[in-house]
Each structure stands twice: as structure tokens, then as C-alpha cells.
Write a structure and sequence with these properties.
Length: 496
């Protein structure tokens, strides 16, 4: 046996590639999720640490000498502007704003406050939430420089006899965002490339091990399939339900069983063919030899044979011709049944009327053999069944022919119908020679006859044809017999 790999490189590569994509995808998701939550953690920490910043600014810088507003209600830009410049110079990541109580941006050194420029507003809801939590929560507020962004902030409320409002400090301003984006870009490149490189190496090593483990049962099934292909027809997958691909394992075992059954059927068909040739040769030889002998006799002695003797010779020829015709018809009929070329045409009909017709047809044969032939139906019921009338008639004819063949003179043959069990039981009973117990199991086999009947007419196909016909009706024919005490053949049909 040539040594072959159980898994193709293409399959291994596909499995490894799929696993690599999965792990790399997981690594990228992990990097992104880790970055997101670490960034959120950093922002929350920064906000909580710097939450007192706005209040500290108010406490230290806004006094009676340096009020936030002038007498006319305008912002004290000299004080507040210098204050903002100083704070933002020390920490360039922050942006300081003075807000009104309605969230209007009153002043900031990072915004334009020229006449005619519409005022900007900040949503006060996050401000109120953060103040209510005492600066301990994580809250994002509006960024006046970028209305689409929300950022961490520090806020404190101030009260003034001229005007009240808020000191609102963005803790991660534009400078912070720019620096953070640059740093993150460099970080993600180096970290990403490193992570992907390590992941690729890890996937290569780990993936091969995983593929070997996951395909263990597949390799086992492949080996069994190869053994089966090479002629080991008994090769099966042990304990298929314990494999990782139990459906495939069960399917293979079922397929192997089906192939074996088909091979066995082919062997049986081949055996049948040999039996057919042998039996046909035997059954055809005798009538053909008789036909040839009598025909030659008539040719050679036609001038010396009397009229009566000539007629006797012609009668023998005619009788053997009928035997040949009957044999060929039986062989043709059985071959079609065996090949399942006949489909029953199911219909409703009276089985009582059919049996009465058959009894009438066979009365002449019964009189010639001095046999009593009758139909036994309880209370003369008209029993309706659902079956193929022509096939059932053929089956009953074969059973009656068989009964007449093995029933001696002064015997009795009965057709019985019984519908007491909800279906119709059909029986053909005779008082003939019966069937020996050891032969009853094979009486329906093709080319089988009892030893007493082997020399009689027929090729042993009559009962085999009956069996095939009854099986087409999803029923079973049975025989009850005692040697030299008669036989009874029964089958059941669905009653309407």
C-alpha cells in the first residue's frame, strides 16, 4: 500500500489561515478595546484629580480687589485674561472659560469675541451632574472650540453681586488631543506591528498543534475509508458517536453497509442468473427433445402412420409447446417482478366477485380431476379491498394451479375469505400431499418444488411470483401445511 497523507496541504493551509485570521482579528479587537478602556480610565482619573481646579482658581484669584466682572457687568478681561494665559502656559492641555448660568460662553482667550459674532453656549446638564456628584463622577461636557466633541472638564460655580456664573475648564484641550493623537499613532504602529508579529509566530506554532488535534478524527475516518477502498469491506469507524464529526462517521458506516448490501445483492443476482441458466436449460431440454423427436417421427413416418397415431403425436407436440410457452411467460413475468418493473395499480374492487369468477373458471378442471372446488365466505359477504385486481387475480391463479397440481382425485380445494379482523384474509386451502416441514421455509424460493412435485409441470416459479406480488401490496404470504394432510396459503389485503 502506498503511503499517502490523510490531509492535503491545501486543507491544512486553509485551516491554519482561518485560525490565523481569527487570532489576528481577536488581537486587533483586544488592542482597540484595551486602548478604549485605558483611555476612558485615564480620562476618568484625570478628571477626578483635577476636579478641584476650577474651585481653586475662584478661591485664589477672584477677590473683591480682582472681581470677575466690572461695574458695568462686562468681564474683567485684564484679570481674567492674564489668569487664563498663566494657567494655560503652565498646563497647555487645559482651556479655561467663563460661563453664564445659562451656559453662555462669556469669555475665553481661545475664542473670538468680536462684536457681531454669535455667542456660544455649553450644555449645563453635565455641569450640574458633576457638581451634584461633588466632582467624583466621570462626566463629559461640551467643547466650545469643537461643538461635535465632548471632553472631560472641571467646573465651579461662583456668585458675584454683579453676575453669577461658572468657571469651566476643559482638561483635555486641543493641544492635549493633538499630542495624544500623535503619541497614539506611534504607539499603535509599534504595538500593532509587534503584536501581529508575535501573534503570527504564535499562531503558526499553536495553529499546527490545534489542527493536528482537531483533525485527529478526520484522519482516522480517512484511514478507514482508504482501507475500505482497498478492499477491506469490513472496515468501519469504531464508536462513531464519540467522534467530533459523528454525523459524517455514521454516514460513512451506513454507506459502507449499503455498499456491502448492494454487493451481496449483486452476488445473489449473479447466482440467480446461474440458477436461471441451469434451470431453464433443464426445463427446456425435455420439452424441446420431445418436440424434436415427435416432429422427426412425423416427418420420417408420415406415410405409414395412421390418422389416430398422427393425431396423438400432434397432441404431444401441442402439449409440450404449451409447456414451453408457459415456462417462458413465467420467466418473463418473474424477471419483471424481480427488477421491480411492475408497479401495482391500486383500486377498490370486490374480492368476493373475483374469487367467484375464479371458482367458475376452474370448475372444468375440478370436474376432470374429480376435485371439489368451492368459495367459503362468511354470510356470503361482498368484501371490498384496495389492491391491484389483475395482480391479485394472477396470484390466486398461481395458488389454485399449485393446489390442483398437488391435490389427488377426490380431493378438496377451498378459497376462503375472512374480514373479521378488520382486514381481509385470503386463503387457498387444499387436501393435497402437503409440504414437509424442512421444505416449508424455501417453498417460495425461485426454482423450488417439493420432491413429490418436481416431475410435474412448471419451473418452480409460480409461488415465487405470488410472493413478489403480495410483497408489492406490502403484505406477506404464509403457508401452513402438514405432510400428506394438505396445505393452506394465506395473505392479507386492506379492507375498504
Amino acid at each position: 500500500m502506498n503511503k499517502q497523507s490523510t490531509l492535503t496541504p491545501k486543507l491544512v493551509f486553509k485551516l491554519w489561515f482561518a485560525l490565523s485570521v481569527l487570532i489576528v482579528g481577536m488581537a486587533i479587537c483586544y488592542i482597540l478595546i484595551t486602548n478604549y478602556y485605558s483611555n476612558q480610565h485615564h480620562l476618568a482619573t484625570q478628571q477626578e484629580i483635577n476636579s478641584p481646579l476650577a474651585q481653586h482658581l475662584i478661591n485664589e484669584k477672584f477677590t473683591e480687589d480682582t472681581p470677575p466682572f466690572l461695574e458695568d457687568g462686562s468681564v474683567n478681561k485684564a484679570v481674567f485674561g492674564d489668569l487664563m494665559h498663566d494657567m494655560m502656559a503652565v498646563n497647555r492641555s487645559i482651556e479655561v472659560y467663563m460661563l453664564g448660568e445659562d451656559g453662555e460662553v462669556l469669555y475665553s482667550v481661545v475664542l473670538e469675541h468680536d462684536p457681531g459674532v454669535p455667542s456660544q453656549y455649553v450644555d449645563v446638564k453635565p455641569i450640574e451632574d458633576l457638581l451634584a456628584s461633588g466632582g467624583k463622577g466621570f462626566c463629559l461636557g461640551d467643547d466650545p472650540r469643537d461643538p461635535d466633541e465632548r471632553k472631560i472638564f472641571s467646573v465651579a460655580h461662583f456668585e458675584n453681586k454683579i453676575k453669577n456664573g461658572y468657571i469651566y475648564i476643559i482638561l483635555s484641550g486641543e493641544a492635549y488631543q493633538t499630542a495624544s493623537a500623535n503619541i497614539f499613532s506611534k504607539y499603535i504602529k509599534s504595538f500593532g506591528l509587534g503584536a501581529i508579529g508575535l501573534t503570527t509566530i504564535f499562531t503558526l506554532l499553536f495553529g499546527l498543534g490545534v489542527i493536528w488535534f482537531l483533525t485527529k478524527n478526520l484522519r482516522k475516518i480517512t484511514q478507514v475509508a482508504r482501507r475500505f477502498k482497498e478492499g477491506d469491506l469490513d472496515a468501519r469507524i469504531d464508536n462513531p458517536e464519540n467522534t467530533d464529526i459523528s454525523v459524517f462517521a455514521h454516514t460513512f458506516n451506513e454507506m459502507a453497509d449499503t455498499i456491502n448490501e448492494n454487493l451481496e445483492e449483486i452476488k445473489n443476482v449473479d447466482e440467480l442468473r446461474r440458477q436461471l441458466i441451469a434451470n431453464v436449460s433443464h426445463d427446456l431440454r425435455t420439452p424441446l427433445a420431445i418436440l424434436k423427436g415427435y416432429a422427426e417421427t412425423l416427418q420420417e413416418k408420415s406415410e405409414v402412420l395412421g390418422k389416430e397415431e398422427t393425431q396423438r403425436y400432434l397432441g404431444v407436440i401441442s402439449s409440450n409447446s404449451d409447456k414451453l410457452t408457459n415456462l417462458v411467460e413465467q420467466l418473463f413475468e418473474y424477471s419483471k417482478l424481480e427488477a421491480k418493473q411492475i408497479e401495482p395499480l391500486m383500486e377498490q374492487f370486490s374480492i368476493t366477485d373475483l374469487c367467484l369468477d375464479l371458482v367458475t373458471k376452474y370448475q372444468l378442471v375440478a370436474k376432470e380431476k374429480n376435485i371439489e372446488l368451492s368459495l367459503d365466505v362468511d354470510q356470503n359477504k361482498n368484501i371490498m379491498v384496495y389492491a391491484d385486481i389483475s395482480l391479485i387475480e394472477r396470484a390466486l391463479q398461481n395458488l389454485l394451479d399449485n393446489a390442483f397440481k398437488f391435490t389427488p382425485e377426490n380431493g378438496v380445494i377451498k378459497l376462503k375469505l375472512d374480514d373479521s379482523s378488520g382486514s381481509c384474509k385470503v386463503a387457498v386451502n387444499d387436501s393435497g400431499i402437503g409440504i414437509a416441514p424442512e421444505l416449508q421455509s424455501s417453498v417460495f424460493d425461485r426454482f423450488k418444488q417439493t420432491s413429490e412435485g418436481f416431475s410435474k409441470d412448471g419451473a418452480g416459479l409460480g409461488l415465487a411470483i405470488v410472493k413478489k406480488i403480495i410483497e408489492l401490496h406490502n403484505s406477506t404470504i404464509e403457508v401452513y401445511s402438514k405432510h400428506h394432510k394438505g396445505s393452506e396459503f394465506t395473505f392479507v389485503l386492506p379492507k375498504i
